[in-house]
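Exercise 7b. C-alpha cells:
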C-alpha cells in the first residue's frame, strides 16, 4: 500500500509530468538561469537527439551552475556532434541479437524486451540513442511473436523489461505484459530496468505497486541513479514504498566523466541508495556510442576510482565494476590486469 507520507506524490499525475517535460532548449536555459549564448549550439545538437527532461528532475539542479552533475547528464553539448574513432552507432551489437520484433537475446538465460521507445528523460550518454526503435515497436498482437520466442527457448529463465523505459507504459499495458510473461513456466524472474522512479517519483502509485505484486514470479526493479543529488526526498519516499511492498530494488550507475568520477561521490551515492532500500548493483563503464566520447572514462581511470571506493565503503555498498563487450555471455567484470592479460 501507499502510506500517507506518499500522498503528496499523488497530487500531480505522473502522466501529466511526462506530457509537461521540458523539450525546448530556450525554456531549459530560462528555468535554470543559464547563459542565452548556449542556445544556438543546443538547438543544433537537439536536431539529432532531442532534449527531454521532466520538471521534477529539474527541481534538483542548481540554477546558474553549468557544471551541476545532474545538468551535465541532460544538457546537449556540441561534443555530441563529433565523430570519434572507436565509437559506433551500435557499440553493444544489439541489432544482430534482435531475435524478433521487440526482443534482444544476447545472454543465454536472459532475454530483453524493448517494451517502448519512449523515455521520460533523454540522458545524453544514452547507448540506445541510435537504436532502430521503429522496427521494434509492437502492438499487442505483434508481442505474441516475442512471447512465443520466450516459450520456445527454455534456457531463458529471466525476462528483462527495458526500452526506452517500461514504466512509461500505462499500468494496464504493463500488467498485461507481466501477466503474459508469467504464464511461461520456465521464466522465474521478471526484471524491470527504469529511470522513472528517479526522474518522476510520482510514478510510484497504488496501481503500479499492485501490478508489480500481481505475479508469483520474482519481481526485481533496477533503477538508474548516477549521483546522490538525484535522490530527493520524494524519490527516496517512493523507493522506500516499493521496498516496503516487497519489491527487490537494485541500482545501476554509469561512471561518467565530470559527473560522478570520484570515489567520494560514489560512496555518498551508495549510502543514500541503501538508506532508501536500494542495493548498489552495477557501476558501468560508458558504452562507446557515437556522440558520447566526452563522458568516457578509461579502464585505468575506472580501476583507480574503484580501488579508492572499495577502501571507503562496506562490501554490500560496493557495486560490480563492469563493461559490456559484444559477443560475451554476460557483462564483463573490470579487474586488475594479471600476467598474460
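Sequence design result:
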Amino acid at each position: 500500500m501507499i502510506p500517507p507520507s506518499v500522498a503528496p506524490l499523488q497530487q500531480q499525475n505522473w502522466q501529466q509530468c511526462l506530457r509537461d517535460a521540458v523539450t525546448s532548449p530556450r525554456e531549459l536555459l530560462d528555468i535554470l538561469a543559464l547563459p542565452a549564448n548556449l542556445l544556438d549550439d543546443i538547438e543544433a545538437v537537439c536536431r539529432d537527439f532531442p532534449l527531454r527532461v521532466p520538471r521534477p528532475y529539474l527541481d534538483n539542479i542548481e540554477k546558474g551552475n553549468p557544471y551541476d552533475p545532474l545538468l551535465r547528464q541532460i544538457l546537449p553539448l556540441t561534443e555530441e556532434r563529433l565523430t570519434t574513432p572507436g565509437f559506433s552507432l551500435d557499440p553493444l551489437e544489439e541489432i544482430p541479437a534482435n531475435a524478433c520484433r521487440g526482443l534482444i537475446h544476447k545472454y543465454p538465460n536472459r532475454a530483453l524486451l524493448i517494451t517502448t521507445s519512449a523515455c521520460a528523460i533523454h540522458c545524453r550518454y544514452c547507448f540506445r540513442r541510435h537504436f532502430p526503435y521503429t522496427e521494434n515497436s509492437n502492438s499487442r498482437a505483434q508481442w505474441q511473436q516475442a512471447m512465443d520466442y520466450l516459450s520456445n527457448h527454455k534456457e531463458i529463465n529471466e525476462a528483462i523489461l527495458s526500452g526506452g523505459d517500461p514504466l512509461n507504459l500505462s499500468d494496464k499495458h504493463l500488467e498485461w505484459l507481466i501477466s503474459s510473461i508469467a504464464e511461461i513456466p520456465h521464466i522465474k524472474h521478471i526484471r524491470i530496468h527504469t529511470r522513472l522512479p528517479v526522474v518522476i517519483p510520482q510514478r510510484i502509485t497504488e496501481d503500479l505497486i499492485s501490478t508489480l505484486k500481481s505475479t508469483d514470479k520474482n519481481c526485481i526493479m533496477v533503477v538508474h541513479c548516477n549521483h546522490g543529488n538525484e535522490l530527493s526526498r520524494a524519490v527516496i519516499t517512493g523507493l522506500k514504498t516499493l521496498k516496503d511492498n516487497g519489491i527487490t530494488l537494485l541500482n545501476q550507475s554509469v561512471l561518467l566523466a565530470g559527473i560522478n568520477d570520484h570515489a567520494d561521490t560514489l560512496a555518498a551515492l551508495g549510502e543514500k541508495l541503501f538508506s532508501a532500500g536500494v542495493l548498489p548493483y552495477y557501476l558501468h563503464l560508458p558504452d562507446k556510442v557515437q556522440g558520447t566520447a566526452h563522458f568516457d572514462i578509461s579502464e585505468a581511470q575506472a580501476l583507480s576510482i574503484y580501488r579508492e571506493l572499495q577502501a571507503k565503503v562496506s562490501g554490500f555498498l560496493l557495486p560490480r565494476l563492469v563493461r559490456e563487450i559484444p559477443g560475451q555471455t554476460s557483462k564483463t567484470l573490470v579487474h586488475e590486469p594479471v600476467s598474460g592479460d
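Instructor comment: The CA atoms of residues 144 and 180 lie 9 Å apart. The radius of gyration is 20 Å.
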